Structure formats: C-alpha cells, structure tokens
Amino acid sequence: MNVMRLATRGARPVILGCRSYQPQSSGNSTQWQRQEPTRDFSTGNVYLDVTIVVGSGIGAASSIPTVLSVAGFTEAGIAAASLGANLMSVSAIYNGGGVAAGGIVAGLQSAGVLGTSASTQAVVALGVSAVTAITGYFF
C-alpha cells in the first residue's frame, strides 16, 4: 500500500516501519511530513530506572522455588496432573519409556527438590535484569 492510499483514510498519523508520518494538507493535495520520535525511553529518574531493573532481577531469582512448585516440581517429587507430570510424560514417550538423565525434566525436578544454587539465581537475576533494561529502552 503506498502513502497516497493511506492519505485517504483520514487525518490520523501513519506509522511506516519505525517512522511516523503526519498528513499535512495544503490546498488540494496532502503532503506527508516525517516526524522524529519524541518518546523518552526512561522514567526520567535514573535511580528509579536502576531500581526497576535490579528489582525485576531479584524478584525473578527469589521466585524460582515458587514457580517450580506451581509447575509441579515439588520437594516430594513431581505432582500428579501438573505441568511437570505432562513434561515427564512427553519426555518418557520421546525417550523410549524413561526420562533421560540430565534432561530438562530431570534438571527441573532436581531444582525443585534441592533448590537452586547461588550461581543459578545470579544467572537468572542478571538475565531478567538485562531483558528488563533492553525492553525498557526499546519499548
């Protein structure tokens, strides 16, 4: 669809790619004028931005046991009729009747029973903080 066909849809701004174009009427013709983005990608407070990024990482790392438990990887084993049970069933089907040692299901069950190490929690915290910072910058 070309820009002139978009112009007939009204006086709304049109976004093409990452650039915004506003219709500018002069006489009988409509011109399209490119507008530079004016969006500020931060809250304007550096301390608040850092707190959001660090807090998201700490929150994600501290919620690992809860997430595993809700998914069915409990200290007593894999809970019946849970996501963990479904993953175990699928893993057993694809592995010829048994769950592979060192696989995803075995690793999640181990983390559910024994907990996660400090290094695992640090990796999760850094990963979530990085994703939070990147999405906060671009979106």
Describe this structure in words.
By secondary structure, the protein is an alpha+beta fold. It folds into 2 domains: 3-35, no CATH class; 46-138, no CATH class. Helix content is 53%, strand content 16%. The protein is built from 6 helices and 5 strands; from the N terminus they run αβββααββααα. The chain has helices at 3-7, 46-62, 64-71, 83-94, 104-114, 118-138; strands at residues 14-16, 19-26, 29-35, 73-74, 77-78. Strand 4 and strand 5 (77-78) form a beta hairpin. The longest helix has 21 residues, at 118-138. It is elongated, with a radius of gyration of 25 Å.
Q: Any key phrases for this structure?
A:
53% helix; 139 residues; 3-stranded antiparallel beta sheet; alpha+beta; two-stranded antiparallel sheet; 16% strand; single chain
Please tell me the overall pLDDT: 79
Low-confidence stretches: 1-9, 13-18
Strand and helix order? HEEEHHEEHHH
For the largest beta-sheet, the strand count, sense and barrel status come to:
3 strands, antiparallel
Q: Number of folding domains?
A: 2
Number of helices: 6
Tell me the number of strands. 5
Proportion of strand residues: 15-25%
Radius of gyration: 25 Å
Strand order of the biggest β-sheet? 1-2-3
Distance between the termini: 26 Å
What structural category arises from helix and sheet content? alpha+beta
Sum up the overall morphology in one term: elongated
Helix share, percent: 40-55%
Blueprint of the fold:
Blueprint: H1 3-7, E1 14-16, E2 19-26, E3 29-35, H2 46-62, H3 64-71, E4 73-74, E5 77-78, H4 83-94, H5 104-114, H6 118-138
Antiparallel strand pairs: 1-2, 2-3, 4-5
Helix pairs in contact: 2-6
